[in-house]
Amino acid sequence: LLELKVIDEIIPEPVGGAHRDRDLILDNVRNSISKNLDYFKDLSSDEIMNERKNKFLSFNNKMREQRLFFLSIMNQLGELHTNSISYDITDLNLEWEVQNNVGKLKEIGHTDEEVEYFTQYKNLDVKKQTVDLDNIRDARGHGWDRKEIYLDSYINLTTETLFYDDCWYISEKMFKPIANLQPFIVMGSVYTLRELKKLGFKTFSSYWDESYDDEEDTVIRMRKLTEVITKISTMTIQQVHDMYNDMLPIIKFNQKKLFEYEIHKPNQKEFIKNLSNIHPDTESEVKEERGNGIL
Fold first, then answer.
1. For all residues of the chain together, what is the average pLDDT?
2. Which comes out higher in pLDDT, residue 277 or 77?
3. 233-238 — which CB contacts under 8 Å span 24+ positions?
4. How far is CA 187 from the centre of its chain?
5. Computed over its alpha carbons, how large is the radius of gyration of the chain?
6. What was the pLDDT predicted at 277?
7. What average pLDDT does range 122-141 have in this prediction?
8. CA distances from 135 to 57, 61, 93 (A)
9. How far is the C-alpha of 289 from the C-alpha of 283, rounded, in Å?
10. Residue 276: what pLDDT?
11. Predicted local confidence at residue 289, as pLDDT
């Protein structure tokens, strides 16, 4: 992939995998991000924004329930195949998935109309769509993203690992748009944005409704997220461009804030501590799920 210029770099891992030495892998990732984002240093704001074809960017690896529903939303808005959205449902038993998800959606309180809307992924003719890597399932964690992908889109639709689960989690997916100068809408755990603010980051409530983040009821949260995405979908690419231009001070602030954690805390331990202390009562649950390979 490196020889074919599909990726910019291979980030080395410690012997035994990244989990064996968190400080080392975080230092390697920091150096890689800083080096690759040097590309932006000599670009003006207009150059950063110009010539973007896509409103949205979204990476979807393992097809969890909320990601399948997300595909349904984007397809019915006409945005799925006209934006940088990756997914792979080729190996799914769609009949079983639909049957299971219909039951779940009804059980938690969605209307029959909503159930039909969110399970339209069953009718997708294109079973696999890539943004950069053909083998989507191998693109896990850090080191797979190319800056060109971010430079060709405006808004990151971040489909996090957890949505319906009782435990709470922020993964590396949340920090990729921050590092790569993109605003974000998060299909994830309740209070994700609130906790990001506690870490010092800014969000985008001046531009779209972020009340979805406060909804513990997953039915209402999904409805609100659908409304936010639908509203942006109705905007022209020029309107999105202008909105992005207006957001740039927040976007650049967030990137600077992310890098400050790394610059002022060289051993990375404080950054990890800040993240793990968000919900210490669920940290063990997340670690257990990681051990079971379901994240």
1. 81
2. 77
3. 233/55, 233/77, 233/78, 233/79, 235/55, 237/52, 237/53, 237/55
4. 8
5. 19
6. 43
7. 77
8. 18, 10, 19
9. 10
10. 40
11. 36
The pTM (predicted TM-score) of the whole model is 0.73
Residues 6+ away with beta carbon under 8 Å from 200 = 257
In contact, 184 and 177? CB cutoff 8 Å: yes
133-172 per-position pLDDT tens digit: 666 556 555 555 677 888 899 999 999 999 998 877 788 8
Q: Which CA distances in Å does 107 have to 73, 104, 110, 197, 292?
A: 20, 5, 8, 33, 27
**At 193, which amino acid appears?**
L
204 and 213 Cβ atoms separated by less than 8 Å: no
4-38 pLDDT tens trace: 555 667 777 777 776 677 778 777 877 777 777 66
| Token pair of 287 as six digits | 């670690």
What confidence tens digit (pLDDT) does each residue in 38-48 have? 666 666 666 66
Long-range contact list for 286-291, CB < 8 A, 24+ apart? 286/167, 286/168, 286/169, 289/167, 290/19
Distances (CA, A) of 173 to 10, 77, 155, 276, 286: 18, 24, 14, 16, 15
Cα distances (angstroms) measured from residue 230 to each of 58, 65, 70, 162, 275? 15, 20, 12, 22, 31
Length of the chain: 295
